[in-house]
């Protein structure tokens, strides 16, 4: 994740068959909305890159996870959010 005015995180996955990718924030699936922007770019027939931009306040308990799935299973990667964007409650 990068430290800008808003946090932007990236995830790259590769698998055969090509996986689908989801973002989860604090265990819940995230979709495009006024608070989040998700983009995907196909890198190859088996590779995918996704980015998520979070236009929302986060807490120290906010956990961001990249989840990739295909017919062979599921892989998860937890990402660290830049501390400057967290609100401690």
From TrEMBL:
Residues 1-84 form the Ig-like domain. The keyword Transit peptide does not apply. Keywords: Disulfide bond. Pfam families: C2-set_2 (PF08205). It comes from the Eukaryota. The keyword Plastid does not apply. This is Ig-like domain-containing protein. It comes from Cirrhinus mrigala (Mrigala). The lineage of its organism: Eukaryota, Metazoa, Chordata, Craniata, Vertebrata.
